Amino acid sequence: MAAARESLLDAAGAALARRPWPAVRMVEVAATAGVSRQTLYNEFGGKDGLARALVRRAADGYLAGVERALAGGGDWERLTAVAEWTAAAAQEDALVRALLTGCWSERLPAPPRGPAPVPAQRRPEPPLPSPPDLVRIVRDRAVAALSGPGTAPAATVELARSCELVVRLALSCVTAPPGEGGIAGLIRTAAPRTAL
Known about the structure:
mainly alpha
């Protein structure tokens, strides 16, 4: 069923790229994915479940990109890569932008709130992260990637501040793209290097 689920999410994402979410029809999503409408309902429970899964996939894809950005290079290069990925992902994907900023347009599915109704054959999913949750998650992953064994607690606190500052700078670039020097230039001038 994993292949059908991914096909349905791909079809829903493609439909969302062409028209606002309220105009996306379940029958069209199922037909594009090459499955029955009943399969779609069995998998997601309804349009709200499909929307939640689509948003969850966007959040998971964004966080996977953060992990890739943290995988190599020096400390500042990795933080810069996280900031550049954040801005690029938000520019390319309206769902990622909404997740990061909390600004949901009428074109997008309504931001999922509270626990979702779950089809009987599926387990409940954890709640979707809010913008402050995403800042915390990215900050904590960056701290974990950049701190070594035996890092002093005071150094970890400073590192966490620097990582959060970089994430927040990246978010500011989502809403107001930087000028000359780009994100890397902002980070070089604004983020204290003493913690790294």
